[in-house]
Amino acid sequence: MNPQDVKAKLEAQFPAIEIKIVNQGLAIKPEDLRRVAEFLKESDEFKMNYLSCITAVDYLDSLESVYNLYSVDKRIGPIFLKVRVPRSNPKIPSLFDLYRGAEYQEREAYDMMGIVYEGHPDLRRIFMWEGFEGHPLRKDYIPEDEDVLEWQDVEWLERHGVKVPEEYKEFARQLKESGKEARAERPKAAAE
Amino acid sequence: MQAPNVSQIEEGLKSELRKKGIVVATLEDLYNWGRRSSIWPLQFGLACCAIEMIATACARYDIGRFGAELFRASPRQADLMIIAGTVTKKMAPQIVRLYNQMPEPKYVITMGACSIAGGPFIDGYNVLKGMDRFIPIDVHLPGCPPRPEALLWGLTQLQKKIDSQEIEKAEWYQKGLKREYPIPEFGPKGLIPKFNPEIWRPETASRRRERYGDPILTGKKTAAPQFETFGDTQTKVGTV
After folding, report:
1. DSSP assignment, residue B72?
2. Fewest CB within 10 A of the end CB: N or C in chain B?
3. In this predicted model, what pLDDT tens digit does every residue of B195-232 receive, in sequence order?
C-alpha cells in the first residue's frame, strides 16, 4: 500500500496530526500513536486487524519502535508506523488493548531495548531472567568478560566448597578494590 | 586416552579353543563389551544439532547399530549425555542439574561448535562459552552442525574410551569420587560463577587472538534515516 495515500487519508481524518514519510514508513508522534492505530484498525477502508510485528531500533541518541500492520480481511499491507522517542525518556503508549498480540512483542522490546510501553498490563522481562541489569541489544551494552572471576564468583565458589586458585582470588580482590567490573573488550572499528 | 586392554592369553591357544566352541575372555572384556554396546543417551536437544542427532537415530544412519538407540527421557536411566546445540546461560543450570542426577558411570559428548566453545555466539551476551566450564566432557565433537556420521564417530571414540577402562581402577568404584558439581545461578550480568576452576581454566594466551589477531568491526556504518524534530515535542532526533 502506498504510504502517500495512507498519509493523505490520515491527515484528512485528523487535521492536527503531523506525519512524515521515512523510507516506506509513517513517522508519527508517540501521543498520536493510539488514535492512528485505532483508526487504521476500525475504519472500513483499512481494517488493519493484524499487528504482525513490533521491532525496536537503537539510534544512539533515540530509540524507535516500528509497527507492521496488515489487513487479513482486505489483504492489504503492510503499513509501517514508526515512533521515535528520546533515549533519556523512552515511553510509548501500549497497543495491548487494540491488538492482543502486542503483549509479548512489547515485552520483548522492553527486555532487549528498554522501551517502556505505558499501559501494558504486565511489562517485565521475557527472555532474560529477573534481576538482569541493562538491556542487551542496545548499542552501548558491553557484555561481561567471562574468562575472569570476580569477587562475587569467588565468594560463591567458596560457599559451595570449590577451591579457588590463589591467583584468581588475588586478581578478583584487586578488581574489587579498584572498583572496576570485568567487561568484554569492544572490537576496534576498521581503519577507513 | 588410556591404552586399550590387551589380553594376556596366547592367540594361538585362543583360536584352537574357539574351534572347540570355547571362548576365553577376561571378565573385564565382557564387562566393557556389555557397557559399550548398550549406551543409553539422555533424550534432549537444544538447537539445530539436535536435528542431526534425530537423523542419526533414524533409519538411514541408525545409531542402533552401535547399541545406543534407547534414548531415555529420565537422567536416572541414562549413561550418556549428548549436549546437542547451543547452551544459553538460561539453560546451563538445568544441564548441570541433569548431569548431577545421572548415575555413575556417566559420559558426556558435546556436539557442535556452540556447546564446545560458544560457536558463532562467542561475542554475544547470552550463550555460555563452552559447557566444559561446569561439567567434565569426554568427547568434543566439532562441526556446525556435525553430520550424523560425525556423531557416530564420536560414539565410537567413546566406546574406545569405555573399552580402555579397568574395573579395578574405575573411578566410580573408588572412594571419595565427586562427580556432582555446583549448579550456577543467575546474576545481574550473567552466570555466577562464570566457570568452575576445578574443571576448566581459561587459557593464559588467547589462541583466537594469536590466530586471527584483534577483532575488528568490518562493514560500513549506515546513517540513520533522518527526520526532523516534530515542532516542540520532546521527540528529539538526529543522525548517528
Report:
1. B
2. N
3. 999 999 998 888 878 887 777 776 666 666 666 545 44
- What would the pLDDT profile of A58-115 be if each residue is shown by its tens digit? 888 889 999 999 999 989 879 999 999 998 889 999 999 999 999 999 999 999 999 9
CB contact (8 A) between residue B235 and residue A149: no
Q: Which pLDDT band, with edges at 50, 70 and 90, does B2 fall under?
A: low
H or E, element range at A63 = strand A62-71
Question: Beta partners for B140?
Answer: B110
What SS3 string covers A91-133?
EEECCCCCCCCHHHHHHHHHHHHCCEEECCCCCCCCCCCCCCC
DSSP A165: P
Measured distance CA(A150)–CA(A164) in Å, rounded: 11
**Burial letters for B70-81: b for 16+ Cβ neighbours within 10 Å, e otherwise?**
bbbeebeebbbb
Which residues 6+ apart lie within 8 Å of A15 measured at CB? none
Mean pLDDT across B167-172:
82
pTM, 2 dp: 0.85
Instruction: Count chain A–chain B contacts defined by CB atoms under 8 A.
Output: 118
Out of B186, B214, B215, the one facing A131 most closely (by C-beta) is B186
| Chain-centre distance for alpha carbon A89 | 13
**CA distances in angstroms from B66 to A69, B97, B107, listed in the order given:** 53, 27, 16
Instruction: Give A32 to chain B, closest Cα distance, Å.
Output: 12
Question: Using a CB-CB distance cutoff of 8 angstroms, which residues of chain B are in contact with residue A129?
Answer: 90, 186
The C-alpha cell that represents B132 in the structure block: 566444559
Name the residue facing A162 among B182, B194, B228 (closest C-beta): B182
pLDDT at site A92: 94
Task: Dump pLDDT digits (tens) for B109-138.
Answer: 999 999 999 989 988 899 999 999 999 999
